[in-house]
Structures are given as C-alpha cells and as structure tokens.
Amino acid sequence: MKDLHPQVPLGRLCGLFDKSRQAFYQRQQVIYEQAVEEHFILSQVQGIRKRQPRIGTRKLLVKLEEIGIQMGRDALFDMLRQNGLLVRRRRNGIRTTNSSHWLRKYPNLIRHFEPLRPNQLWVSDITYLETTEGFLYLFLITDACSKKILGWAIADNLDADNAVEALQMALRSMKSDCSGLIHHSDRGVQYCSDKYVKLLNRHQIQISMTENGDPRENAIAERVNGILKDEWLYDLGKVGKSGMRKIVPQIIHIYNDERPHMSLNLRTPNVAHQIIGKLEKRWKNYYQTKESRKYFSTN
Predict the structure, then answer these.
(1) pTM
(2) What is the pLDDT of residues 136-165, one digit of tens each?
(3) Rounded Cα–Cα distance for residues 188 and 198 (Å)
(4) Contact 261, 268 (CB under 8 A)
C-alpha cells in the first residue's frame, strides 16, 4: 500500500488518526460529564426554589455550598441565564399608611443610631397581601440587627388592634426586660394609637418615628416587606384569604430559618438573632442616606 501523502509515512498517519479518535472520545466524555453536572446543579437549584422561589444568585451559591457544590458566581449566573432561571425584581405598591391624623407623633431617634446586637432596635411596618377575595394586611415587627421577623399579624383591615397583636407576639420572644430597646415605625395612625403607645410605655420601650415620609427612614422594615413579596408572595397565583393566612406563617418561617442575608455575612436571621455580643455585618449604618441606598441595592 502506498503512502497517502508523500511527506508523511503511513505508520505516522495511522497514529495520528488513533490520537484524534482518542481525543474525540475524551472530549465527548467531558461534554457528557459537564451535562450531567449541570443537570444535577439545576435540579438542586429548582429544589431550593420550591421553598425560596426568587432567591438570588449569590444566596443560591451559599445554599449550594451547604450541600457540597462548589462553583463560581459568574459560572452559576451564566448557567441560570442560559436556562431562563434568573429572577427579575418587581415594584408595586398600595398605600397602607395614614399619617394625617391628630394623634401625637414622635421624633426619629435612629437617624445616627447603629444597632450592634439583637433587641436594641425593632422596626415595624404594614404591607398588603393580594388575594382572590380582596386584600389582607400583614403587620410586621422585625429586629433591625438580625433581620428576624419577631411578630406578625394578618388581618382584613388596618385597625390598630392588629398592630398591637404583632407587637404582643414580638414581646413574647423577649427573655428579659426591654430596657434600652427602641421601637421605630412610620407615623401611621396604628403606631400612634393609644393602645399601641401604652403597650410600648408599659414595657419601657423608647418610641421613634419617621419624620419626612422618606422610606429610607424605615429602610429595614420596607426591605423586609419587599423580600417577602419579591421572593414569595408575588408568585403565589390565585390564593384566597384562608389560603393566604396558612401560607404566610410558612413563608416567615423559611425567611427566618433558611434565607441567608448579604448584610448578615450570609447568615440566616434566626442564627444572627442568637449571636451573643456584637454582630459583625457588612455595612455599619442603614439609616444614613448613602448607606440606605447601598442596603436597598445589595441586600
């Protein structure tokens, strides 16, 4: 048999074909293994998102690392993008605050205050829940340092009694007295009501309120509302009032016990709330304008 190419001996050419065949099969094996790995990672992502439907890429990395999956943020971002699994933030709103009332209002005590440990500052707010049978309203009390939701109440009206119910739940979580604790809220009629103020005074809790109507003055409470809506509530679909009343406590449990926060160095609120001593966080002060903007954009 004559050489196929006058410059390349037949034996060497056969050797090249063997190497090419081997490289081809090795490449096919690599592609297969990569596909299997990607399928496994995506299945884990979908499992995590069954409980946290709109969890972001950075927090997904933390959850994946907990089950032994190590990969870069950019690689995970690209994988999610290619498979249509990136989440987009949505904005919607309905008015829940009525500050045009004659009841006494209080000054803002936390303009330059930095909570260093849990139970130094609680923030309160009200958000709406849309159901197939009309609106419900969720009253929340959140610890500003640990971001843990300590008290809540769900109602079909904005009466002050519902705000009192949420506060009473938060107070039951206290293992000692409330000395040194500040309660911060907007100037809504619920928080200025006689019942609410008397309960705070009875426990010697200092009262602080926003002054200019700027949501950044109550940034953490506003942000918690946004997290619950963006990552869970907006995607519930058609749910009646009774269904919503059952689902919200489950969501709050997942938020407190499973969702890592960037500002808590990727701890969950429940873990952060149990830390004794100063809680190290990523940013020092959420209440100054510059820091509030940073908090909104990165938490």
Answers:
(1) 0.66
(2) 999 999 999 999 999 999 999 999 999 999
(3) 16
(4) yes
